[in-house]
Amino acid sequence: MTWIRINQEVDAIVQFHPGSSVPALKAINWQGTRRTFVGMPQIEADLESLTYDIRDKWTRYAIRFDRGRQRWTLEGLDDSWIMAPHELPRPKYFPPP
Predict the structure, then answer these.
(1) For FRET with 36, which of 24, 63, 64, 91 sits at 20 to 30 Å CA-CA?
(2) From CA 51, how far away is CA 61, in angstroms rounded?
(3) How far is CA 39 from CA 12, 28, 32, 48, 56, in A?
(4) Distance, CA of 42 to CA of 18 (rounded, Å)
């Protein structure tokens, strides 16, 4: 696993559902790019924070929401399952070497 520690504050796009005390994390803005998430996150909660384990199409993110400070922090990411260009399979129409 290639886990990269970031620990950088980010802007989060969230949705609040009626009757839920946990905001639904939809996307973050990080390094000038919006990263939109897919699927349902795993959420760990304690008295001070919520930690989301969530993915976009390519990368897994760990994002913490500090309830007291109302801040979102990108704790780290894991992109180890992404293939490098030289690891990608050749298309079927590609001529043999």
Answers:
(1) 91
(2) 10
(3) 16, 15, 23, 25, 8
(4) 20
Tokens at residue 33, please? Answer: 């790019």
- What pLDDT was estimated at residue 95? 53
Domain boundaries, the chain: 3-81
What is the predicted pLDDT for the residue at 84?
61
Give Cβ neighbours of residue 15 (< 8 Å, ≥ 6 apart). Answer: 23, 24, 26
Structural tokens at position 60: 């897994």
Q: How confident is the model at residue 62, as a pLDDT?
A: 95
Joined tokens for residue 52: 């989301």
* Mean residue pLDDT across the chain: 86
pLDDT tens sequence across 38-78: 988 999 999 999 999 999 888 899 999 999 999 999 999 98
Query: Is there a contact between 71 and 63 (Cβ–Cβ < 8 Å)?
Result: no
DSSP letter (8 states) at residue 67: T
Task: Tell which residue, 28, 97, 14, has the closest CA to residue 59.
Answer: 28
